[in-house]
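Exam review. A common question shows you a sequence with its structure tokens and asks you to describe the fold in words. Practice with the pair below. Do the first one on your own.
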Amino acid sequence: MKSVTFHGIIAARKVVTRFLKSTPLTHYPELSEKLGFQAYIKHENHLPTGSFKVRGGINFMSNLPTEQKKQGVVTATRGNHGQSIAYAAAQFCVKATIVVPYGNNPEKNSAMHAFGAELIEHGADFDEARELCDTLQAERGLYYVHPCMEPALIHGVGTYSLEIFENLPNVHTIIVPIGGGSGVCGAITVAKAINPNVKIIGVQAENAPAIYRSWKEGEHVETDSCNTIADGLATRVPFKLPFSIIKDGIHDIVTVNEEEIRSGIRTVLRYTHNLAEGAGAAALAAAYKLADTLEGQNVAIIMSGGNLDTETLKEVLSNS
């Protein structure tokens, strides 16, 4: 199994910055007053695809061998990873085939198609969609881009953590949503290299707690379902590479329920005037639960994405 390294993240930055600008790390005084600590939001929702994952897509596609660029790639997604691969593939003139589950976020589907990807619907959830990729890989000679098992992806997304340490050298805690785990693995790797005293806290949905349960129980745990409004957190299976980093490197993992995620979306809108998807609001939802333990600290909260579809937004706001 290939490894994730701080050197890899440093190298990725040279690639990523050719295509993407750094995202803001914004301090919100009113939100800080309410929480009892200094709250800094890392706005990954400001990237071209509305999500942090495009950092990884750019770095991966840059490192893809020339012959494979000619053949193309395939991946499975609930949306943000797929948009990342579709966007990055377009930058490097690579054909991308994206498999999504039936009933996937229609606006994310539309965005992937607009970036030039071929979209295929298959299965009831991400993990079932992922199974079709093996067939397409064999039939078409495509490279399967696993959303969490490619070090180049993790190296790419790890660049947002470099930006946090540059902009807030005295950060005490970083709170990161966990779906497959690429973002939190980047944060763990960077913190270990720059300042191991910085605490990395992960967040999962109560309805999709595979990594949380695996971490707590000390063994690989899969769940039967992952029915959460936060589709960026909706995975049933902990993947080997990210979990190997998480299990020894994370300081804590907390879970948030569906109403806490909805409240997080509304709170983000109220205090930052940004739109966050469920996964993007999960870290702030967790910050509220942890407020007493974070008192007086400088806390970076990762707003991982803003790709919330219109119908879900209506539902969240109508029940406030």
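Now try the second one, then compare your answer with the model answer below.
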Amino acid sequence: MNSIVDSISDREALNVSLQSLDNKRDDMIALVQKWSAINSGSRNLDGLQVMEAEIVEAFEPLGAEVEFIALGDGESVNQQGDVETVKNGRSLRIYKNPAANRRVLLTGHTDTVFPVDSDFQTSQWLDDNTLNGPGVADMKGGIIVMLHALLTFESGPFAGSIGWEVILSPDEETGSLKSGPILMERAKAADIGLTYEPALADGTLAGARKGSGNYTIVVRGKATHAGREFHEGRNAVVALSRIIADLSELTDGRPELTVNPAVISGGVAPNIVPDMAWCRFNVRLKAAEDGDWFQGKLDAIIDDWNSRDGYSISLHGGINRPPKVLSDANLKLMDLIKVCGNDLGININYVATGGCCEGNNLAAAGLPNVDTLGVRGGSIHSSDEFVLVDSFVERAKLSALILNAFASGKLDDVMNLKKQ
């Protein structure tokens, strides 16, 4: 297809609605600055609640239904190696026309990686087009793109003709451990998925994605005096170091599989044989079946150490996001979105990435999706995070056109492939 816009019968009304976004640039920038100043780190439940209220207010003009979905408690291993309960925020569901014969799921997250005591709490201009601030790209800026795309669609020629559903999660940055099942469930009720993680600064979108798992391994030994009773002790730090070496050897045991031991702790003083040590590590995998291979190797390492006198090893966590493998329906959707970009003068390219997001969850449920439709930006997860503000209007137009193309039947080939 050479053009989506030219193939739509009421293209004059469509163009008018898309052009109306040119007047929304300042509003979008002001809103991202306001939202950036709200700390909504994954564990800051008060901040997440404030962010939730802001979003509900912003989406109110759409006249949609709103549902708050309580998430169950999670678990985390603390500094002492003990498992403790952690509270989660709520997922926010906003939806309209759920009985329509064409349904789209739009997803994103309200949380950021910046805790309530972070030094990074405000935004600042780096130049006329670059705004630095927490969440400006990942992904408060993305939610704003989503919002204005929906507002534009609902004011255009196909208003009311599709069912759309927005799911915003409060725990994406910690792996979507509790929101993941909700995403999977809602994905099964949709025909296509759009997710609003940031694109790269040059506009490149993500294609295939690796899967990911986060683990904590806890080693318990026996504490003794390092001088008087050294040989009676069981050094948990030494045992952990050997386990870490074994874990590292698993890298490239399957094509592009990587294991990253990242955070370690153990011991209390140099004159005491340490009786506890732990390590947090991450695995990335290209193929779903590699997860079983990795788990088998991991279990063998743990079983070996648990069989040794005086040691007790426990493992927590697992693979929480399967690889995003591109189905024929997903490839077709990517191609048609590229056509939408061409209509708007936006050159869209896709690149495979080792990163993960909610697009992994949607793909695992069989939903074709593109998951980097947010703003152009970069340096996310750091105090250098930035958004290129000229991308607000650009990306809102792109998503609004995708919604119109979907409503007018131009993406039906994606739906047909999905059903095969």
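Model answer, second protein: The longest strand covers residues 211-220. The chain has a mean pLDDT of 96. Full marks require stating both points clearly.
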